[in-house]
Amino acid sequence: MNTLILPWDWHRVVIEPWSSGASIYGWILLMGFLINLTCGLIGNYFILRRMALIGDAISHSVLPGMAIAFLVAGAWHLPIATEGTPSPVPEGFSHGMAMVIGAGIAGIVTGLIIEWIHQKSRIKQDAAIGITFSTLFALGVVIISLYADKVHLDADCVLHGEIAFIPLEPFLTIGTHPIAPAPVVQMGVVAILTALGISLFYKELLVSSFDPGLAHATGIRADWIHYGLMIWLSVVVVSAFESVGAILVIAMLILPGASASLLSQRLHIMLAWSSLHALLSSLIGLHLAIWWDTSIAGSMVVAGSGLFFLCWLISPSQGPLWRRLRRKSSTDTKAAATQHLSKTYS
Q1: Could you tell me the pTM of the whole model?
Q2: Does 61 have pLDDT greater than 50?
Q3: What is the CATH number of domain 10-335?
Q4: Core-most of 95, 216, 220, 260, by most CB within 10 Å?
């Protein structure tokens, strides 16, 4: 790369992907949107609870959970590069089920460890989160090194995922008709269940996020809601792990909700804004990746960060543009009042 800014080619970047490559880029865009949407919806609640970094902890701590689950299942068919043939899976026990169970247990353990460190010592919650996720992530690497010497972590997968390979995944079929790549179907099911869960438990999630004391007073088990969210966050992270990696999924958990919170303080409107953010960041990020010839998942996060900055600029409550307009309006009003008074008493 000899230039800082690559030349823009409208046809290659915008037209060609959909005119001749829609069958490839369509699945990539859909997968990116489903991940951004699901992460954004559940991320809103962790932002409201001032626990945005818990997504960081969960995304790292699922590794030992997955490793132990697959050791117990007798299989090592993870989003990890493998050599040779994996061990047979016990009958009736799928790889995906092992992954979800292991990640769910890891999510519960992560939450318990963080709360235990925070309550039993003077260490603040952010430090407890950092200690927990770094320790558990390292534990996962050690377990893999000890018990699976033929398995090594794929750095690309862990850092930024392999969403570009989604169209090459095996398609689920109905009869002889292919429907969609298996990861897209899996992420779609997780997205639907996430939206359904938010709809069914909207009041409980709302009250427990804003005022846990009020939730207990009204009979809502805020602690159950808390750990339920962490378990489901583990499921979301595992579903997105192979496509966007453990690092970028953190940004997808935070950026949509953080951007939405700049535009509105009402939860249902925030959920709508975060959904729009998910769609735009996926679409813009895909075209940025084509333009720059770089990581698609990384470009989606860059696009999401740009949208966050735009939301901050135009935020009605915190944006510098609105503050400047209000100051100008106030100055003009004072000037007009002063001029009126001077004319009145002159």
Answers
A1: 0.83
A2: yes
A3: 1.10.3470.10
A4: 260
